[in-house]
Amino acid sequence: MHLMRSILGAKIARTPLDFNPEEIAGAAAISLRAARKIDTPTALIKVLAKTAGKYCTPQKQLLEPIEDGSVREVASISEKAAIDDIVACERVLKTYQETLSIRTSAIRWRVDEATADQWLQNALTIANIKTREGVSRHISSERLNRRQTAVHNAVILPAKPRRTSDMKEANDLIATLYEAFRNSPDEVRWWASYALLNSNLSHPGVSFASPCEAKRFLQLSDAAIPRNRWALALAAPSVRAETAWRQAVGSSVSISTRRQPKKIHSRRPDGYARLCLLDDTFAPGPKGESEIQWKKYTAKSFRYSFHMMGILIGVSE
Question: Which candidate, 287, 138, 116, places its Cα nearest to that of 203?
């Protein structure tokens, strides 16, 4: 028996693998470059054993100290579910960017393949949204150029906020809207779709051509964002139009106004506006709203939030 097992083991060790590099990368949770170097079962077993240790070995967890008189906040079940989906979605699509195989990505991160494929299709749809000049609205040329030296030139995830506080705010916003999506899927999908179709990387915020659309957008945002965090840059053709915009967005929203150029009055009879979420560090100076520097004070969490929401729930036509 021992001799037979030894002979069979030696024979199997020299048998070529019947797996392609993408399947090996997915099973072993390694890069495609490393997977191409694995050509025998013995080499694969060594890598699998190393990978399995990451999941099988229990990690020591230290209890976080709680100060006297304080209560530690615990996320709700719906918030945890939303964060789990965000993390899983990012992992799957990031792996896809490296391997260009959604099946490999789904297997690697233990996600249902149909769900992973839906996330991918949503992400590709958003990445292909163009401006009138034919430029991508949500994937910068700088990020695309950085990927040209990589194995595959695929960029489909939104750029993450750098500050921890911005990332937390983005996750909180997504979790709140994700919960609202269960009860009002069409409305929340409209919210994310409108933001994606009416924004670009050249200008902060979301553009509106109608006070009614701005009102609808803000009403859906109210569950997650206080009105006083918003600012509206408005170009109105008349005092009457300006009044309509102010009534639509409410008195809590900071508004800076200017007269709309006559050359675009026929295309936008109600005027147009750009709605921006202000950073939590913003404080108006002595000149008030006119002192707002839009790009400087726009919250970095906002663009990431509606981009990820679009990937998770899809974009309405």
Answer: 138
Residue 273, phi then psi, degrees to nearest 5: -150, 155
Q: Six-digit token pair at 244? A: 């309509």
Give the amino acid at 288. Answer: G
Left (φ > 0), alpha (ψ -120 to 50) or beta: where does 294 sit? alpha
Query: Residue 184 corresponds to which tokens in the numbers above?
Result: 């009002």
Q: Which residue, among 169, 163, 189, 179, has the nearest Cα to 85 in the 3D structure? A: 179
Buried residues in 155-168 as b, exposed as e (16+ CB within 10 A): bbbbbebeeeebee
Residue 196 · residue 310 · CB < 8 Å: yes
Are the beta carbons of 275 and 144 closer than 8 angstroms? Answer: no
Instruction: Answer for the pair 131, 300: CB distance below 8 angstroms, yes or no.
Output: no
DSSP lists the bridge partners of residue 130 as 136
- For 86-112, what is each residue's pLDDT tens digit? 889 999 998 888 777 888 889 889 899
pTM: 0.69
Chain centroid, CA 54 distance in Å: 27
How far, CA to CA in Å, does 81 sit from each of 76, 109, 118, 312?
9, 16, 18, 12
Buried (b) or exposed (e) across 191-204, using 16+ Cβ within 10 A? bbbbbbbbbbbeeb
Structure tokens belonging to residue 14: 């020299």
Q: Per the structure block, which two tokens stand in for 151?
A: 């194995």
Mean predicted confidence (pLDDT) in 163-186: 87
